[in-house]
Request: fold
Amino acid sequence: MKAAASRRKMAQPASESPARHPPSVADDFLRSAELLAEVGQSFYRRGWMLGTSGNLSVVVSSKPLRLAITASGLDKGHLTANQIVVVDEDGQVVLGEGRPSAETKLHLAIVRARGAGAVLHTHSVWSTLLSDLCAEDRGLAIEEYEMLKGLAGVETHAHREWLPILENSQDCDRLAETTRQALEKHPMAHGFLLRRHGLYTWGRDISDAKQHVEILEFLLEVVGRKATLPPVAQKSS
Reply:
């Protein structure tokens, strides 16, 4: 009974009437909210979303654009479907309760630039460290690792993945525009880093985006750990 009541409460719009939401949108929202909660808890356990860090989103409607996204300031280790809201193309809440992530406009910029169906943002130790260490190069190149083949469209370990590094900012309008420009400049990139902040990546759906997080976080850790090895060990690896 409590679960049913919770689902009814979550499905009520914050600023639009129920008639504005076709049944398919509401149904997609419920399914997506449950999946995002599962992913958030999983990433927390892996140390990629500690404290209240990180945010997750999935497109539930393309026309009009509706994005299900985690609400702000939440412990991802205890994330629930009730803590997911839906925003419109301007980042305004139209379904669910709570304030959307402060970085909602970055998610919207990525969805528009890449046609992504889901966007995931983590705050791991390795993405944070490398985004700072490699900031002067404005990006990080990762190449000749077998795990690169887990990225969409990559068929060989010889692939060279370039992750742009963007300066962090609390001005999310400005950061969203910087993101748009970076994605336009690097159309083959599967993700990017915010300096001293973390990783952004995306995919055609939640499963695809989750796989990209797992691949890129693995590779970032490999690159980071390799950099700590003595020169002789690096040469032999």
About this structure: The beta strands are 55-61, 66-70, 84-87, 93-95, 118-122, 139-143, 160-166, 191-194, 198-203. The CA atoms of residues 146 and 157 lie 5 Å apart. The radius of gyration is 18 Å.
